[in-house]
Write a structure and sequence with these properties.
163 residues, 2,3-Dihydroxybiphenyl 1,2-Dioxygenase, domain 1, 4-stranded mixed beta sheet
Length: 163
Amino acid sequence: MSTYKIPANTCIGHIHLKVSDIDKSLAFYESLLGFEIQQRYGSQAVFLSAGGYHHHIGLNTWESKGAGPAPSYAVGLYHTAILFPTRKDLSIALRRIISANYPITGAANHGVSHAIYLDDPDGNGVELYWDLPKEEWPLDENGSLQMITDRLDLEELLSLSNS
């Protein structure tokens, strides 16, 4: 086995999803979550970003127009995780989702992050989350990370977007 380790500052640059309907997906990713359109490829593909990056999310119907969702019990993407810069930003996103009556599938305090879960129009899982400062992450007596899945206090989180 190789001892190579990917560089510490490496990050996932973007996701590209096969979707059944560009307009329904845009209603979710652009209108609800607030991503901005960077480029369209006719009526079959669109690239979206936060803050003007070339794209964080690609959506296309090249092989999937009108198709149903992928089976739940099959190999594939579990969810896309979208990291918010501040806890207040996550609170604002949660308030927008609730105001739109969009279904939330879960919420959790993972010890390292606070997360809200929902599905896009094609059933693709989406996690919206904020990371706690690294020095607050739970470690065991050997210094190994011990992520958890506890209840996230949504009312307390929502209180941040009132100010």
